[in-house]
Amino acid sequence: MKTENTNAKVHKLYWIAQDSGKRYPAGVAFYNELQGDYRLKVDTFPEDKVIYLKPISMSDGLIHFRVEAAVRKQGVVLHRAEIGEGHASVESGYPIFMDIGPFARTLVLEAA
């Protein structure tokens, strides 16, 4: 059984400032075909913080996503906690726009 996606395409992440629309580099994301979600490596988060982006529904021409953080205890993932939400157009699928917790900027995942 394959446990990791070694041929995963790299998706760029960036922040968009709400007031100016300016883009700032934010990290990278990888799509996991086995789980059907993205693993995000966001530059502003600690390296050991595992963030996921998971599609949850579709309505009114939009794909809706949930942004989740892995909750660990003694190195073991107990569950995932919701920390934000996202959306993308059903037609193109990209970019995916995310609102996360206390951040005033929108996090965006681009097509690979």
Largest sheet: 8 strands, antiparallel, barrel
Q: Note the run of SSEs as H and E.
A: EEEEEEEE
Low confidence ranges: none
Order of strands in the sheet with the most strands? 1-2-3-4-5-6-7-8
Secondary structure elements and pairings:
Blueprint: E1 10-16, E2 23-32, E3 37-42, E4 51-59, E5 62-73, E6 76-89, E7 96-100, E8 106-109
Antiparallel strand pairs: 1-2, 1-8, 2-3, 3-4, 4-5, 5-6, 6-7, 7-8
Structure commentary:
With about 110 residues, the chain is mainly beta. The chain has one domain. The protein has no helices and eight strands. It has strands spanning about 10-15, 25-30, 35-40, 50-60, 60-75, 75-90, 95-100, 105-110. The protein has an eight-stranded antiparallel beta barrel. A hairpin with a 4-residue loop joins strand 2 (about 25-30) and strand 3 (about 35-40). It is globular. The chain starts with 9 loop residues before the first strand and ends with a strand. About 15% of the residues are buried.
Which descriptors would you attach to this protein?
mainly beta; eight-stranded antiparallel beta barrel; globular
Short recap of the structure:
The protein has 112 residues and is mostly beta strands. It has strands at residues 10-16, 23-32, 37-42, 51-59, 62-73, 76-89, 96-100, 106-109.
